[in-house]
Write a structure and sequence with these properties.
heterodimer; A: alpha/beta; two-stranded antiparallel ribbon; 17 strands; B: mainly alpha; two-stranded antiparallel sheet; about 50% helix
Chain lengths: ~475, ~775
Amino acid sequence: MIYSRRDLLNSFAYGVGGMALSDLLHGAAPNPLAPRKPHFAPKAKSVIFMFMEGGPSQMDLFDPKPALQKHNGKPLPAEFTKDLKLAFTKPNAAALASPRIFQPCGKSGIVISDYLPGLREVADELCVVRSMHTDAVNHHPGQLLLFTGSIQFGRPTAGAWVTYGLGSESQNLPGFVALSSGAGTSGGASNFMSGFLPSTYQGTIFRNSGDPILYLSNPEGVSKATQRTSLDAIKELNEEHLRKSADPEIAARIQSYELAFRMQMSAPELLDFSNESQETLEMYGIGKEPTHQFGTNALLARRLVERGVRFVLMMDASWDTHTNLNKKLKEKCDATDKGSSALIKDLKRRGLLDETLVVWGGEFGRTPICEIRNTADPDNAGRDHHPTGYSMWLAGGGVKGGQTIGETDELGFTITRDKVHVHDLQATMLHCLGLDHLKLTYRHMGRDYRLTDLAGNVVTKILA
Amino acid sequence: MQTNGLRVDIGAALIQGGYSGPAVVPGKPGESKLLHRLKSTEKAEMMPPMGARLSPADIDVITKWIADGAKVPAASAAGPARRETSHWSFQPVKRPATPAGVNPIDFFITERLKKEGLTPSPEANRVTLARRVKLDLLGLAPTPAEVAAFVNDKSPNAYERMVDRYLDSPHYGERWARPWLDLARYADSDGYEKDNVRPYAWRYRQWVIDALNADMPFDRFTIAQVAGDLLPAATVEDRVATGFHRNVLTNREAGVDRAEARYEQLINRTNTLGTTWLGLTVGCAQCHDHKYDPFSQREFYQLYAFFNEADDVDIDAPMEGERGPYLKALPAYRRDREKLLAEYKIPALQARWEEKMRAAYANPGKDAEFDFWITSMSAMVDHAMRMLHKKPEERTQREIDTLADYFISNPGPENGRDKELTARLKELKTKITDLKKTVPFLTQAYTIGEHPSHPKTHITIRGDYRSLGIEVQPGTPAVMPPMERKEGEPVRVAFARWLVAPNNPLTPRVTVNRAWQELFGRGLVRTSEDFGVSGEKPSHPELLDWLASEFVAQGWSQKKLHKTIMMSATYRQASAFRPDAAEKDADNTLLARQSRLRLPAELIRDTALQVAGILDPEVGGKSVMPFLPKGVGELAYGGSKWKETTGQEAYRRGLYIHYQRTTPYPLLVNFDAPDSNVACSRRRPSNTPLQALNLLNDPVFLEAANAFALRAMETQSAAGPRIDAMFQQALGRQPSDTERQTLARYVDAQSNVLKAEGRNGDQLTQGAWSGVARVLFNLDEFINRE
């Protein structure tokens, strides 16, 4: 049973009659982020979701389609394209073969593209799913579906659901943190909002410039000492008011201020990489271009889960390669491959990989056929959005690494084995955390809602 | 349970079929979907979906029955025509009798409390009341003079006169517009990936503020927003009111299927209407018959049909004084514009481009480059294809200008490759932009109007816009009183009148409940968005009905409604926590006391700016973009759209802060403002460390604190009185001795710290007193109304 904030407050309010102020302040005060027991024994304690916004090209990275070579530059037989629903391209567009070189990697022999040399080194940790599918063909709806389980607005995101279900292990940091690199994402804030869940569960965005958390630093001219003096006075006066009106919300407010102060104090330590070895920094590509930004976020993600943060969403934009595929995809891979593979290695050697679920992927994949927006420049070719068969990978807590699941047809249009819908991915993620996606519900507008909407099956093949 | 319109227990209904068409074709077993479903082994199709399948023998019997003409015995041919329900909210509003000489609200509340052995709390003290009433009616804090005036007013109707005075203030419309705009999912941008700014969205907000200030009766308020465009002799203001529906999100992501995007918008409009007026979650019936509430998927699409027959129309909606100068400047603008277009040979170039665009539209897949531009233009320009296919002589001036402006900025692939032409078009674009600047500003508005092609409405099967079921006509749910359409009346007008018809039980109940919610923190029906079967029951059903009937009897006046509630002793009670009552009524549902309410996001900033003396009190007008830390706006696709407002306007009320859907202003997000994507009938106040950081460290609150301190230092030279004055300005009341001492000690401690940090003189004094202001702004009491 998971308690809502209202329940917690109610149970608290019941007891208030006979309570002394000290109890009010320090004893039973409700904390909606207090750690909560999962439904069953979990494999993973936290999640790092590397969201590759825009839709990475699966047949250039994880799902080679050599058969495209013989059709390259020519329209494909209608049997492959008859049900296609595409954003820009028409079904009669020419096939686009991939020039990438694939090879089996590690002991497991998972096939990975030459654009991802780092991931090749950690292949045995990865569970590559080649049979992902989604219902949306456009970015924002696709991102809503991936993160909230519905293309309609207003639902909580996966990170909010998980934080609502499990609370947070961290006393000094938010339970759900969002990091961003590259350009802005189509979904913007809707990828980490709490929807109809209390806003306590929404993701806190760590910013790339200025304060990591908005308004974390004291404003100009306010020193640490003056801030503390002010906080003491605020606390005293709030306590005085609590004594008179006994409203439990005042006790919660006092706690929020204390947590805010602890956040202010602990964030510099979190962001201070000086105790990381030179080798670690190099492994993540920190301090070098083009890997610095993503690498920094990847290391930050590790440090966040180390400190008990429940859900870290790393958003990297944009993988939306409608044009200039070969060049743009290389740029994205060059910027992120080092960081994402370093994160796996680093988690592993610290013994954290077993308790951290790592997910990598976009809101959909890309078409086997070619999108040309400028006929005068053949190198301009790109790929359109492709929802009916694309790849993602998972690693870490609860996941059986070193395997490839699912299969698409020889040209990569549709799935021929082990379909995994976005809702199935969500159910599986929750399962790894010890949460039953059917039981993690919240009543809203007279209905019990869940992340997986009305669908979702745990994909047992993914599990360790 | 039947969820897709098909009934198999009534013979005629079985032949007629469900939403995807007839289930049985008499004489033709092969074409009968019923048989197909019975035989299928596909999980999504087979019937029954679980449990034992029909035996082959059974199927043979049915096959033969269909082949023989599917004759139905007369007894089972007809079924019940009208839905009946015993659910409370659909029953007529009955005005209960109340004893003479007792305030009816207090009567119902007290009667209910008696049952629990509870008594109401005493009246709050006058200082608290002064702050409560002003915050509730205007969203502003009372000045010490206002508090004193009320405290010292010994006349018996002092309280009533205070309420009346605030009801007459133009800030009333600002305070009460906010909850309505939450329902209207008001925002200043399109939403979705592109999230383009809507420069004239505020014009609708302006209408709401004006309507509330004028106390426009709620029935008229409703009719204007639902069908103002179709009223006889509709004014510009009537049309502007329909902007309610234009607040819906628009997905301009280039690859989006326009039909799908429109479908999503109409679904959103139907749901929003259901929540706002009927308090019903009709949205569940988008995909199937409603599981709990007595209406069907067919009825959902009948509501949807009212909006499907409407079209988006942008109009000139000048504010006072704009039209004259605009019209004066127009002829010269038109003349110069035509001259420029001719000089750059636009008519010929554009005609050729249009030809190509139309050809690409007619033959998709032939020309990949033009295909892209068709997709792109359709997303960026409303009604693009409709305009492009109109004969030039049939186009309106607005359409002619829109097309030409679009062409000049997006001349297509071939022209785009002509470097010289591209440069010339760029030059022309600058000239036209400059020319436009010579025409005085004329405010526009986003409204709805009749759709030129009267699209038909079909049920969509399982909510998939591509899979169309049977056709339906606009109509209202059968469980409600029927809609009466006058001779020759547009159907949407009849619908709007139906929403506020005297026998509609939902609209008045839902509306008074929300007013109650604003004034007590929770509605008599807690689920103010859901009066259906799965919503909560009213805590005081008779009171709800009394209020609903009183509201209608008072001519749907919202101001009178607010006054009626605020005059009650129930409203005026103290809000102090009562352990005795909490034991029996933890949520304070029974109202043995008032509630302490956390101020909405906007009002936290408003009151801080107001107390500091730097609030810009101007009512109405455009949205503003106050300072936003770098990196916030950049998080969304396409980068920041925030162009910081400078000067006094940056300190306008929070209601006017530009709402960019993908990157909302942080204060609004932190303090629980809705995301403005769907109708929100109640905000859920939370209590988080981010709120603490926001209040402590957001520069706007430091600015306010500095201004507040300076103001206090100018008017009070001695420390003791200064503390008292600041405390009173911020919280309305005098500090207790303990509080005074705490703050005095704080001033000393802070001065010592500042001294140790090397500050002295004015800097030190200001720092310490600005600290006092910050402390006050951060008190729980400051951001609550008690």
